[in-house]
Amino acid sequence: MFAAYIEKHALGSHPRPRLFQLRNGWTIEFASEPDVAFNDAEGVKQIAIEIKGSLDTAGAQTRYGEAKKSFAKQIAENPRCHTIYLASSFTDAVIKQIEADGQVRDWVNLTSVLVDPEEQLRFLERLFYIVETPTRRRRKLITRS
Fold it and tell me: Exposed (0-12), middle (13-18) or buried (19+): which is 46, by Cβ within 10 Å?
C-alpha cells in the first residue's frame, strides 16, 4: 500500500526491505515498535503507527494497551509525534479509552483501509499531508487543534 502510493506520486525510493527514503529527506521504516515510523530529515520520529489486525473484540482493550505503551515511548521522545492507531477492532470501551488517554492523535479502521480503495486513499492522503507539511507549519496546525 505504501510502496504503491510512494511510487505513483514519485515521493521517494525503496532502497532496502522495510525502508523507504522520501525525497524530502524523511524515512519510513517498518519495525516492531512502532510498527511504522516516519522520521524527518534530522532523524526525529514525527509519525508513529501501531497496527493491530485481530478482529477479536474480546482482546481489543489488551491490544490497545500494548499500542498505548509504544505511543508513550514515542511521545516521550518527541511530544509532537503524530500517533496513529490502525486497528481492525474498536469497541466502545476502546474508543472511550483512546479519547480519554489523549495519546492517539488519529485512529483508523485497518479493515476499511485494506478493503475500501476510497478509504485507503483518504488514509494515505492524510498521512502524506503530514509528511509534506513543513515542521513549523505543522506545529501551528497541531497547537490550534
Answer: buried
